[in-house]
Design goal:
It is a single chain. The chain is built from 6 helices and 6 strands; from the N terminus they run βαβαββββαααα. With about 220 residues, the chain is α+β, with helices and mostly antiparallel strands. The protein has 2 domains: about 1-155, no CATH class; about 160-215, no CATH class. It has a 6-stranded mixed beta sheet, sandwiched between helices.
Length: about 220
Amino acid sequence: MLKLLAVRGAIITTDANGCTHDVAQAVLDAGADYLLALKGNRAALHAAVAAVFETAGSGGRTAGACADYDLTAERGHGRVEFRQVWTLPARVLGVAAPTLPGLQTLVHVARTRGVAGRGTTDHVYYVTSMAAPARRLNVAIRAHWGVENHLHHALDVVLGEDASRVRDKTAADNLGSIRRIAQTLLRNDPSKLSLAMKSRRAGLSSAYLRHLLTLGHRS
């Protein structure tokens, strides 16, 4: 797929399923940088990265012996989230550790969420071909989850994509395209209604549906 896209200069992010030698090489061949989540499916590399961060003292509220550190906080919807990011140069793994082509930086992310006085912390590791500061990597990782929250989540919750029982591939592809067009039309409406409310209103009001279909096409 990367061969079909103009991604030169871009940052390609994936979940842990994309953390493979072939994906990393394909991204580099396309002139882009990769930022890949690292979990147990790459057990040896995951263990090696976790070990070097433990030695460097990541996990607290300081940089420790890491190369760089970033901390951000967000509040909203009755909860607070702290995101901490530590980085180390890939060379600290040593020559005996498994690696990926073009690997430059190791990343440790701790996400702490607090709701009603209770908090939980998740620790996730990433590997990237970028020699970038922690702040830039923090933004890129956050942006990856924006795709999930603003695209796939909306398609499922608002437009019921995951609940679809259509099994014919052509029909499923066609319906998928229609859902994405519908989602774009709903997002184009600048009103403060949620996507779910806009969708419901479009089903009840021909005038509002006409408004959505003609946005940007009026003389």
